[in-house]
Amino acid sequence: MRKIQKILVANRGEIAIRVMRTAREMGIKTVAIYSDADSHSPHVRYADEAVNVGPPPSAQSYLMTDKIIQICKDLSVDAVHPGYGFLSENAGFAKTIEENGVLFIGPSVKAIEVMGDKLSAKETVAAYDVPMVPGVNHAVTDPEEARKIAEQVGYPVLIKASAGGGGKGMRVVENPEELEEQMKRAISEALSSFGNGAVFVEKFITSPRHIEIQVLGDKHGNLVYLFERECSIQRRHQKVIEEAPSAILTPEKRKAMGEAALGVARSCDYYSAGTVEFIVDENLDFFFLEMNTRLQVEHPVTEEITGVDLVREQIRIAEGHPLSFKQEDLKIKGHSLEVRVYAEDPTNNFLPDIGYLSTYKRPEGPGIRVDDGFEEGMDIPIYYDPMIAKLIATGKDRAEAIERMVKAIQEYEITGFKTTLNFCEFAIKHEAFTSGKFDTKFVDTYYKPELLQEVNPEHHDLAVVLAALVVEEKSNNNLKAKNNTKTSNWKLRVRD
Ligand code: ADP
Ligand code: ADP
Ligand code: MG
């Protein structure tokens, strides 16, 4: 058993602060790293110590393993938490950290390696009685072979990059005529994006839900599951609204999925926090997609319904403690929703809409949690993921969580650029969402940018009132422009 004294968080933004909060609670000192673009970021001030690691591009800063190791040595850091994204699923990084006598707060190098590649994951899991999406679990390069597989599983099929992630590296093929062309493209894309051209073919589930299971394991072989998160509301195969529990799982199905997830975890001797993702079809049959060997963006909804601080557990597990609870001790209490606040324009294909955060007021009240990493008056850097905050609303049941979320979204004031907030309000109020009958095609099926105007009529009226003020504001800005190139933006008070 090793008592951690000082943690370096190899990340930025909300997740860096999230991790440091728990470390501080546990009496552990914290070290932040930051790029030139983040020198004024709250995560830098929150830490006990902070070190600049280089210019804005992440390849020259947040991804610099050698610099991070050197800082660990210089500042007597005894453990590194990678957050999500960046180096969190980089087996080479975890290996180097541990070779230098520093604990990696995450799973073993082997587990990261095996699960980091979708094909090796499928292969490893094969012996553990886990249902798989129909298809193959080896790389396919020959279009003729792909055609045979597609015929067996039936069109449409999905060509997937084995090394893919973040919703990238997937192509849907509707019919045999498109197959060869799409395969060529998939392979060259996989090569250029992930440096690995291996692709495989699986059945494309046409009305799927994405439901994932949170697992925790210790270094003594104990494993538990902390129920599911429903993550079906996505754009570009990326999640934007998550909730726990799912509105559609029965206790029996929950148990079956939980146990399948434990099988996946067992197959790679998993310890720390991890997530097993499943795709679920209309009949509630579920299939293994992949395992994410890290803390997930949407982990707060699980914390809210179980009362478990996942970061605290990760730290204790890294120290060598056995889990302090058993499966029977875990119960679902209430319901929790998360919306991801991205600096993106939902009226323009969710393209990033980065800028100056001229107003920033967070919502408050019972059941409201905001995990964020920016504050009013900051520029949002263009170099990184455009997620600026996560808004989490928890209630005694789903209806109360929805009510609280809608109120909180309306209270949240962000001006300076567009965000996904008004889209999330639209989605959460939609009958398909409130009834629980939705799938990953929600955005394609129900969403049109024009509908955002109707979400919040009072905001729309306000827009008319404010239009007059904008004219005045603009002339003021012109006066100020000599000293200040940043424009304040009234119009964005109405968020569309
Ligand atoms: P989650 O499963 O928690 O929703 P993702 O799997 O989409 O999250 O990835 C978490 C973070 O890491 C996101 O910020 C995403 O942009 C980034 N990310 C993950 N994999 C990749 C990848 N292969 N290329 C680029 N970014 C990635
Ligand atoms: P990533 O590593 O990018 O997260 P995943 O395999 O987890 O890749 O897939 C991301 C998303 O793509 C899923 O949440 C789901 O919406 C969609 N998807 C993946 N596989 C399938 C499939 N076989 N059929 C239909 N949709 C799929
Ligand atoms: Mg995934």
Automatic annotation (TrEMBL):
It comes from Roseivirga echinicomitans. The lineage of its organism: Bacteria, Pseudomonadati, Bacteroidota, Cytophagia, Cytophagales. It holds the Pfam family CPSase_L_D2. It comes from the Bacteria. One of its GO terms (molecular function) is metal ion binding. This is Biotin carboxylase. NCBIfam families: PRK08591.1. The keyword ATP-binding applies. SMART domains: Biotin_carb_C. Residues 3-448 form the Biotin carboxylation domain. PROSITE patterns: ATP_GRASP, BC, CPSASE_1, CPSASE_2. Residues 122-319 form the ATP-grasp domain. Keywords: ATP-binding, Biotin, Ligase, Magnesium, Metal-binding, Nucleotide-binding.
